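Suppose you are handed a protein chain with no further information: no name, no annotation, nothing but its sequence. What can you learn? This example shows the usual starting point.
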Amino acid sequence: MCICVYTHMNAATIFKVIIVDDCVAFGQSLQFLLSHMPQYEVLAILSDGKDVIEYPHLAQADLIIMDMSMPIINGVDAGKQINYILPDIKLVAVTQNNDMVCLRELVEAGFRGYVLKHSIVEDLANVLNAVLKNELAFPKELVLRNIL
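A reasonable first move is to predict its three-dimensional structure. Written in structure tokens, the prediction is:
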């Protein structure tokens, strides 16, 4: 049986996603949002950077959507480790607080995109599409703040 799904990538591909956030409700909400985008399949919802680094099926993921501030290993440190061992996995950062984000730190850790939690419904699809096309997807205000 063949599952064919049209995506903006011009291919019939289902992308495997891992969600990492210490807020269970947000992780479940993100999974619900992705369930309405047929090109994505959620492999796991994990609660910390340590959990994702140790996840036995990490290599199966195409994309990780990860919170930046988590208690044991934060998103930037987890991203650095994932990017080092599995550089083909695309990393997208999510956070509540735009003021705590350093663009250089995210890019150096391997993140290709960024979404604020309060605008995730509006911005997630565009950010994921850009990242999966090997483009960077960071909000203009974050880029400008980090340049000035």
